[in-house]
Amino acid sequence: MRIVLCKGQLMGPISGADETIVTYATQLQAANQQPTVLLMYPPASDDQYYLRLKQGGVSVHTIASQGMHASMNTGRKLAAHLQRAFPASRQLIRGRAQKFSTSVAHRYFRECLEYFSLCQADIVHVMTPDPSAMVMIRAAHESGLPVLYHELGMPYHPPAFASYYEQFVAALPYCSELAALSPNLQRQCDDQLSYRLPISVLPVMAEDLLDTREPNLKSPGSITFGFAARLERLKGPLVLIEAFSAVSRIFDNSSLKIAGAGSQLQSAVTLADAAGIAHSCQFTGAYTTVEQKRAFMRSLDVFVLPSLTEGTPNCIVEAMACGLPVIASAVGGVTDMITPDTGLLVPPDEPIALAEAMNYLAGNPALRERMGHAARRRYLDVFSPRSVLPLMLNTYRRIAAGRQVKPPAEKLKLGAEPHPWSSCTPATEVA
Q: What whole-number distance in Å separates Cα of residue 162 and Cα of residue 125?
């Protein structure tokens, strides 16, 4: 199939949406499909996600000029600086930035229309609810192409960005179908998005990171907890530091490894130092290659993500692919990802509950091993290419056929069983 995967821009260095579009595109390419990634704004030549697309043989096209990309990046950095300097004006600054980005994106409607009119795609798959996505959806629809919009998080979350959704829903009538990342998120989309379109489930996907040929990097008799995400408030890094401080007083052979970058990095380092646990905390920075990601995950015993809001985080899937038990907040689609045999769910923003869960697994190595094996099996069943790709292609073909016929199940010669989430009931279609 000829699939155009669309996004406004690559947001690196750590972006779950970028990770999703890159993994989808490279896995479709490896499965002998014909994916193209279309970006409104050009990426930097050294962007890690762009380099992975090129290395995977995926064609990347852009609409705007490099000069506009540079201007948008400068504006984004200035807005972020102003928000940090004047927290009370954050909403005002964000609102003006939204108006500006909307105005710029609409300038490129004709260029998008021309691209879609010539690309001969079978389907257009658009991600993230931003002004660029609105323009791409309308241009693809006007070109006569079926459009799938994929919600990669929780609708209207985080709350500070609700205005983006209020604007974005105006583009939904131009879509043929919506997709959510998990059954729980599907229900949230059905409840909260204004237009009653069919909603399917398309999970995130991660390539297999487990390589038994590599040496085991874990130290016998110790336990290492790990976190890999943006170091921003909504990911809960300071909650994790506080919880680990309590854990380290009981398990003096425990350590914490944190991979990532962001506005709370220095605060996390300062908090670890003030709590007297700096010697047990390692801040490794953001990894940028699959090899670095694999090495980081293999050095852990337990993966921890205490987010305040989430879709279905790629980092949890990557941890499960490496056979790690997971402790995570019970938010968004995480409750669909983690089952009682694969990890522990805790309330968000509660360091005491998080510390109790970490202590529980720290004191039960046999349970950690069982959970790790179960997490690996769940990855293979729900989030691996062999499970997700057939579901994606069946969804694409159904939409491309105008929902008039039901194509046969696509196996891709991978021996995949029907996806566990393929039978989830979509939202009622309203004529």
A: 22
pTM for the full predicted model: 0.89
State the amino acid at position 423 in one-letter form.
S
- What token pair was written down for 34? 């014909």
Token pair of 300, please? 């852990």
- Between residues 278 and 79, the one the model is more confident about: 278
Please tell me the distance from the alpha carbon of residue 121 to that of residue 109, in angstroms, as a whole number: 18
Classify the C-alpha dihedral 383-25-127-89 as positive or negative: positive
Distance (Å, rounded) from C-alpha 248 to C-alpha 96?
45
CA–CA distance, 259 with 278 (Å, rounded to integer): 15
Output the pLDDT for position 411: 47
In angstroms, what CA-CA distances link 209 with 48, 66, 371, 385?
Answer: 18, 34, 17, 12
What domains does the chain contain, in order, with CATH numbers? Answer: 2-201 (3.40.50.2000), 223-383 (3.40.50.2000)
Give whole-number Cα distances, 3 to 220, 358, 399, in Å: 47, 43, 12
pLDDT tens per residue, range 297-331: 999 999 999 999 999 999 999 999 999 999 999 99
Which candidate, 149, 127, 157, places its Cα nearest to that of 198? 149
